[in-house]
Amino acid sequence: MDHLALLERIMSEVGPEIGRGRLADYIPALAQVDPRKFGFAVADLDGRVVGVGDWEEPFSLQSVAKVFGLALVVARDGERIWERVGREPSGNPFNSLVQLEHEHGIPRNPFINAGALVVTDRLLTLTGDARGALRTFLREESGNDEVDFDAVVASSEAEHGARNAALAYFMASHDNMDNPVQTVLEHYFWQSSLTMSCRDLALAGLFLACHGLRADGSRVLSSSDAKRINAIMLTCGTYDAAGEFAYRVGLPGKSGVGGGILAVMPGRGTLSVWSPGLDSRGNSVAGVAALDRFSTLTGWSVF
Amino acid sequence: MDHLALLERIMSEVGPEIGRGRLADYIPALAQVDPRKFGFAVADLDGRVVGVGDWEEPFSLQSVAKVFGLALVVARDGERIWERVGREPSGNPFNSLVQLEHEHGIPRNPFINAGALVVTDRLLTLTGDARGALRTFLREESGNDEVDFDAVVASSEAEHGARNAALAYFMASHDNMDNPVQTVLEHYFWQSSLTMSCRDLALAGLFLACHGLRADGSRVLSSSDAKRINAIMLTCGTYDAAGEFAYRVGLPGKSGVGGGILAVMPGRGTLSVWSPGLDSRGNSVAGVAALDRFSTLTGWSVF
Amino acid sequence: MDHLALLERIMSEVGPEIGRGRLADYIPALAQVDPRKFGFAVADLDGRVVGVGDWEEPFSLQSVAKVFGLALVVARDGERIWERVGREPSGNPFNSLVQLEHEHGIPRNPFINAGALVVTDRLLTLTGDARGALRTFLREESGNDEVDFDAVVASSEAEHGARNAALAYFMASHDNMDNPVQTVLEHYFWQSSLTMSCRDLALAGLFLACHGLRADGSRVLSSSDAKRINAIMLTCGTYDAAGEFAYRVGLPGKSGVGGGILAVMPGRGTLSVWSPGLDSRGNSVAGVAALDRFSTLTGWSVF
Amino acid sequence: MDHLALLERIMSEVGPEIGRGRLADYIPALAQVDPRKFGFAVADLDGRVVGVGDWEEPFSLQSVAKVFGLALVVARDGERIWERVGREPSGNPFNSLVQLEHEHGIPRNPFINAGALVVTDRLLTLTGDARGALRTFLREESGNDEVDFDAVVASSEAEHGARNAALAYFMASHDNMDNPVQTVLEHYFWQSSLTMSCRDLALAGLFLACHGLRADGSRVLSSSDAKRINAIMLTCGTYDAAGEFAYRVGLPGKSGVGGGILAVMPGRGTLSVWSPGLDSRGNSVAGVAALDRFSTLTGWSVF
Predict the structure, then answer these.
(1) Is D90 helix (H, G, I), strand (E, B) or coil?
(2) From the CA atom positions of chain C, what is the Rg in Å?
(3) Do the domain assignments include residue D303?
(4) Active site residue: C257, C264, C285, C288, which one?
(5) EC annotation (chains A, B, C, D) (predicted)?
(6) D159 reaches C (C-beta below 8 A)
(7) pLDDT one-digit tens code per residue, D170-229
(8) Looking at residue B26, what DSSP letter applies?
């Protein structure tokens, strides 16, 4: 069965899941999204992409952006970031302070909020404009110059961002922030507000499926760095449900509370899915179900 | 033996402890205090005060100020503060975030930093000027109009106050801050910078020993509120060494990282001691030793 | 007003509280007690005791026994027990493993279950028969040779004692058990099953109110050891509600899930109360209310 | 390069790592193993196996046995075990009680000790002889009837097993043990004492690399169950270093404190390595280094 037919079948099968779960209501701008949205796309290593449903409609990347921020920092700075952030699953909610206190301000991994704040801080130091660098990167990788921030979401995040401020100040108290806390927070909130469609996202992630190369053969990351980012996505990419995601889907993936998920099948391609209803751990209900079905029907699984 | 002779004997006995411990070096301005300082004063219910050593030299109140901030809020606002802060010993360091997270932004008691931030926030709402109200209160109770802030200490605290900022933002994320976080922090840092001598401190605390009354018979607090603040001092007043302090000294007490301690013997009087060297829990080494001796020699103990 | 009239007035006032709360249903034998029971007694330093309600009916001491086990060990062994158990409030439920793990098998205080297991282990080493020694002690102090174990409760505790077994094995893994774990557990369960009336209990605790002396002038403990046990009762005696109890009642106290509470007014006397309905922290609802009223009406408070 | 030449090269390259780290000295019988031991084997899907060093010498499986216990339970009982144990990385040491308490006696995953105790309990219920069933299984899969328990190690584990007893009793207190705690513990300790060589282990694990099939085509597990066990190995198989292992090695793996590691390359084969010196997380220092080199040199990685 070709991919398009397959995506259509899956969209039909997971229909009952679409609209289930709850929206990320702690960010008012996200709480107004239509919960019936569903988009699903697959891209192969040659850069061909097909999709179904709302796959060409932009949505808020939220934490999905973290994987690209990490890739940018690793590409420019190599292994140095690992002195300031770990690589282990956290076993705790994404915005927990408990573990951060036990571990003296070193976040467990780059995909929990505290870790992503450290990555943002480093990207700010490396580029002078973390949010701008990330937008440019996503535009280039997706080939879509329309990729942009959503100012309403960004300011909504800032207004409701006291928890992230607490995390950032706590790390500052452990000397794990190089730039002023309020500046890092601002870049972090803007990054999270980036909007892309499933089409854009599947294309933008292709270098992770292709050993660090783009479809045109140019290199984003070394092969081993691409593998390593995939490893971190698999163990840490879906909040405290990474074990469950690995068990059901079997692919490296990164989710966001906007309802988007990027999944990577090394050597084959990428999948991106979007549906706003979230489960109790913050992952898209219909999105995980769709990836689960895709993995089962195609055998795409790293295991 | 009269009190003055007793204080002289104790100062002599605890001599070897003076200078032991470490200064509160996380606040640069405090790290420069002479570690050989030692002052000790006792006041009786009639407002007579005697002292030895450096008992008339002002020192930085730090957390000792928290007991007066709490008294001001309780005096004006009654029991309402207990909706926003608990009354239980924390069992954790004074600036811990762990418990605050488990308990959804409600600090365990008003003497850990998080709890004192809530009290400051409330005092700000009640008075419009939390730091000013506290200075006025301490001037009145001590009868010394020279009691004042130390601007160097206050700005030093602000510069090194990322941990307190983390606590305050975390509570804001749980809707337990009414005023803007940065404003509350500013008042909090200024309050901690208040300086008083042992003489001033022993006099200022007399209302707690006298069922809420001043030496002149006017009332600060109801009798039951005074008892309750003493109860909280006993169970929570000396960081995570409250059990040890109750075991050794047997009096309600409140310590600060400036090396000061106020202790209360209900119906008898107050003790204040200052010596900058701190033990691992942040209490004055020579100060606790002096109070321990006083309690043993006089039988002043609530037990 | 004399004490008897006062107790009668209080029993009437707290009537609406009697029967409120829930029984300790995790121990089947305790779940069958009549929830309407209420007894209240007061003893003075001369050994005179009066009481109201069910004050002469034996009830299950449960954790109230811990204060007598501790007194026995301190009387025989001095300060050595403090190498194996702390003296700080725990800030956690009485049977929590979390803190025990963080602190490497040293329980926070002798009144949480883990700490009482250590005290039992030590008493077993010192006497060869921990449970027997405790029964003898309580018979002597109360002057009642009928004080005894309740075999049904003891075996019920053993059957439902997996949590306590976990605590004991955990401490054994940290070399903080000298005797075989199963033996210590057996003595612990039997001790908890001791039954006494309010009358017996008020008399048995008098030495704590009287600086370590019995009414006849003979000595149980040194004066300073009696003060110290009172201090530990105040900071740690009522599970994770010690702060609340100090705030409301203002007396050293030790409660048990059988619904009993012993409270001590140093230099004045003892209070004992029993009513089986427990609040969410495991303290008797009507019992705490009665002590609160007594404290308010008489001024008995250490603060 | 053929596999044998490759293994020889790697053994030479990791020579400096052999003997580094510390032995598992909390089990006396393991502390006497020669720290210079090093064995390394690779098996392909056809059941061909080659090895170097001490690859034919039996060593103590310890936690490596857990993956086979889980496979047996899943093979007989399907998904039911997941009602009693989770599938998420723990983020805590393998024998931690903290998380178990927060999560009410449901272990985070089947490879931490608490989870393996639940699996053993279930295997005991299913077979009547958990340790015997596991020995039979390993003999069949390895084709070596000499695979057996080490009675000295088993009794050494039992003697030093207080922590595991604490875990088991704690789960019993949450009704998550069906059999008597002491019986489950005995089977658990015997299982951990099973000894196999690298040759045996590589062969015994082949069904995990081959979608649940043996080399002769007979089936141990369904294809999806094999994938799922691999997923759990990747996210949870190397104690609290699973993220690091995924990052460096990129293969599902299960380690034991005997110094052994089994790694699986789905669709290609298995690797087994043994060297007793452990890093701070309990994984073989030379073993991880050897797998890291193999992965780099061959491209065997799921990412």
Answers:
(1) coil
(2) 18
(3) no
(4) C257
(5) 3.5.1.2
(6) no
(7) 999 999 999 999 999 999 999 999 999 999 999 999 999 999 999 899 999 999 999 999
(8) T
